[in-house]
Fold these 2 entries.
Entry 1:
Amino acid sequence: MVSQCQQPKKAMQHLTARRVAGLLSRRGVAAFSSSGVKMASHGHGGVTEQTDMSVPLYWDRLDTPLPDRPYKDTLSDADKSLKQKEKGPWNSLSKEEKLALYRLTFNETYAEMKKPTGEWKTVLGGIFFFIGFTGLVVLWQRYYVYPPHPRTLDDEWQAMQVKRMLDMRVNPVEGFSAKWDYEKGQWK
Amino acid sequence: MFRAALRLSVSGARSLTRTRPQYTASIAARSYSHGKQETDEEFDARWVTYFNKPDIDAWELRKGMNTLIGYDLVPEPKILEAALRACRRLNDLASAIRILEAVKDKSGPHKEIYPYVLQELQPTLSELGIPTPEELGIDKA
C-alpha cells in the first residue's frame, strides 16, 4: 500500500523536473551556455552525465571575456597548422583564417551572446495558457461543484423582498425607504 | 579621461552626482574613506605595467582582462594597447579580438567610446594585424 502511494508521487516529481529542465535547456540559462554542460537528468542505468567541475571550464559571459580554457581543445591537423601560423605575423593571415582562429577559441561572439532570445514569448504564452486552463477549471467548478442556485437571489424574489422592505419602512429617515417616494410609488 | 567623458555625457543622471569612482591599490575594489586614493593615472600606469610584463603568461592575461572588465570603467587605450601586445607575445589573436568586443560591450549606452578607442588603437591594430570585430563581420549576430 505504501509503495503504491509513492510511485505516482515520484512520477510527478520526474515530470516536473524534466519539464523544467526541458524548458531551461531550450531557452538557455541566462548568459550561461557551455558546450560541456549537460543537465543532470534521470538516467536509465543510473549513469548521469555531469560536467567535471574540477577542470577549467569554458563559458560565454559578457563579463568574462577570456574564459578559463579555449572552446575547442581537441584540434584537427588543419587547426594545428593554423595555430602554428598564428605564431608568425598576423598580417599574413587572411580574414577567414583570423575568423577561424577566433572560432577555435570562442564559441559565441559578443553579438551572439547578446542576441535577444524571444524567451518572453514563451513566458507570456505560458502565462496565458495557464490562465486559460484555470478558466476551464473554474468553469467546470461552476457546473459540477457549486450547489444549486439559491432562490433568494432570483429577480422575482428580490423584487418581493424590496417591496417587503419598503412596506416595513426599513431605514425611513436617511437610508433605504427614505429613497422611495411613497406618493408616486417610485424611487426618488 | 574616460571617467570624465562618462560623467559629462550622462547629463542629469543620478550617477553624475556620485563621487569619483574609487580605484584602490588592491585588486578587490574596496572603498576607503581614509587613506590615499589612487589617481586615474596611477591606476592606468599600474595596469599598463601589468600587461607589459615581457614574460606574461596566458593565465595572467586572462585574469588581468577579466578583472579589468569587471571594474566599472572602460579601460584607457594605453592599457588596451599593452593588453593587445601581450596577446601578440602569447600568439593569441582570438583573445585580442575578444578584448575589442569586450570594450565595445563595456561602453554600454555610450556609443562614442568604442570608435574613439579604435581610433586611438589604430596604429597598434595595423602594426600587429589585429582585425576589428567589424572587419570580421562578427559584430552582428
Entry 2:
Amino acid sequence: MATPMLRWCCPGRRWIFAGIGGGSRHGRGVPTGSTSSGKRGQSSVAQQPLITAQKPRKGEREWAAVVGLEIHAQIASNSKLFSGSQVDFAAPPNSLVSFFDASLPGTLPVLNRRCVEAAVMTGLALDCHINRKSLFDRKHYFYADLPAGYQITQQRLPIAVNGSLAYSVCVGQRWSQMVTRTVGVKQIQLEQDSGKSLHDNLRSQTLIDLNRAGVGLLEVVLEPDMSCGEEAAAAIRELQLILQALGTSQANMAEGQLRVDANISVHHPGEPLGVRTEVKNLNSARFLAKAIDYEIQRQISELENGGKILNETRSFDYKLGCTVPMRDKEGKQDYRFMPEPNLPPLLLYDSGSLPTGADPQQVIDIDQLREQLPELPRVTREKLVRQYGMRPEHSFALLNEVGLLEFFQNVMKETRAEPKKVTSWVLNTFLGFLKQQNLAVSESPVTPSALAELLDLLDRKAISSSAAKQAQCVKTRKNSILIKGGLPPHLQPHLTVSGGHKVPGTQRTLTNKHPEG
Amino acid sequence: MQEIYWGVISGTSQVWLGLWALAGGRRGFTSKAGPRVEAGASRRVLKGVGQILEPLALADFGSGGAVARPEKAIAFAYRLCAVATDRVGPVRSVLEDGCLCLRSDNVVEGNCAEELLQNSRRDVEEYFVAPPGRISWPKLDEKEPLSHC
C-alpha cells in the first residue's frame, strides 16, 4: 500500500485564481514562473478539465484559504463505547449488536474504561488540557443507521481541549528542506459511531448493518490553522502515526478507521473570513489534499465570477475529482443538543487527587497514563537523527512505512556498515524492491540478518553494489541464497531468507561484474 | 442570559426559548412577578420555528394544540425568571452528583442477530431494511456506505 509522500508546499501560501472555462469574463489564471503557490495550484487542478490556465492581470488580488479539520478515529478496543458487544470489522451483519446498540427500550449506556484511557492518552500526546470533569450530551437527528435517533457525544464539555499537533512539510523543490508547522487542537471528545447503510439501487432499498453502531470514536477537532491540501494531508499523516504509536486507534483510512471532514473558506488577506463549506467523505489519504485544493479553487473561482459561497455540506466525488453538494443536507440541521440524562459527569483524577480507598478499576489516574505513554513519532525521529546522524527527511521516511523502522534497527544491530550506508540502502534499494514486488515490510523475503550480512560484504568490498542488489532478489526453495558465478568459494555465504515464501522460478545465478580475491 | 431549569421543559422547547430571546421577547429579571409573554409575538415565533422543526424532529406543528402546548410551557418557564439565580449554576442533570461506573473492556454481549431481526418488519439476508423516505439516493458508487450528517 503506497503511503502518502510528503510533498512540497509553500509556507503561508497564497492562491491565485485559475480561470474557469473559456467564457470567464475575468480571464485570470496561474502566473507563469512566479510564486510557487501558483505553480502548485496549477498542478493540483491539472486533472480538472474545466480549469484552464491563463495569464493574470495586473493588480490582481491574492486569496488566502483557511482549512479546519474534524477527524473521527475509531478507538482500538475489544468492546464498544457504551456496551459490551464486540468491535470487529469483518463479521456477519448485525451479529455484533447488543440490545443497547439496537436501542431497545430498557437499556442503558455503561462507559468503557479502555475508551476513556484512549481519549486521555491521545489528549496527553497532543499536549491538551485534560478536563477533570467532562459531560455527555445527545445529538439528535433521524437516520436509519442511528436507531436511537440520537448520538451520545461530548459537545459542551469534552474530555480534552487546547492542544497542538506539530507536523512537517517540505518546502522548496528538493526534499531536503522541511519545516515544522503547528495546528491547534481545539478539542477531543468521545462519541458513538453509527451503523452502516448499504444502498441497494436495484430494489430501491437501504440495508442497515448495526455492527458498527456504538463503536467508540475519538473526534479530534483541529483549529483552522492550515491553508492548503498539503498541510492538511501532512497533519493527518502525523496524527495517524501518533494514534498508531499510542495504540489508541489503527487509524487506517482505507478501512474507515480514520475519517476526515474539512471546513474550507477563502478570503482576501486582511479581510474578514469568508463563508465556509464543509467537505465530507474524505476517506482516502491520496485524495485528501486534492479534494481540499479543488474546493479552495472552486470557491475562489465562484467568488471571482461574482458568485456567492453557500454555507453547505459537500462531498468529494472520487471519480469526477470534484466536490458536489450533498443532496440530503438541504437546509440547516438543528441537533437539539441536550445533556445525556443517563450518564453522570465523567471524573478523572491525578496522583494528587485520587480518592482514598477507591476501586482502581473505577478510577482513572491521568498521571499514571502519562507515565505509560509510549514514545511518540516526533521523539523517535529526533533520536534517529541524533544517534545516526541521519537527515530529518530520512527519519520521516523510515517512520512512514509500517515495520520499516524496526527492520532498519535490526539491520543496524548486526551490521558493521556505516549508518548512512544502511539508511540509504534500506530507503532506496530495499524499499524500492518491496514496492516493485508490492510487498509490505512484514512480507519481505529478505530478513534483517540477511541484509546485514549483505551490507557487510559490500562494506568489505567483497562484492559489488550491483551484485548485492541482485543478491537481494534471489530466493531458493531451500531457504538459502547461493551467490554463484565468479565468487571464490570462501566468499560464498549462505544467507537465510524468511521461510514459506515461494516465488515460482526464482533460482537465479549472479553474474559478478567485479570479481575480487 | 439566565439559564432555565431544563427539567421542566421538553427538549424542543430549548429551541423555542433561544429564538424567543433573539426575538426580543426577553424581559428584565428583576421583576418579582416575572415577565409577561406577548401572545401574538410568541405565536409568530412558534410558527416560523415550527416549519423548521417539523422535518427535523418529526414533530407535528400543524394543529392548534401543537402550538398551544409549547406556548404554555414557555409562559410557565418565564415565571422562573422571578427567582434570583445570580452565581448559581443550573442543574444540567439530576445525576450530577452521581458516580459514573466504568466497564472493563470485555466482550459480554452481542451475537443475537436473529432475535433483533424479529423486531423488524422487513429484513434481507440479516440486514435491517430501512423504512423509506428519509434517505435520498446519491449518485456515488453504491459500494461506499452513505455518510450521514
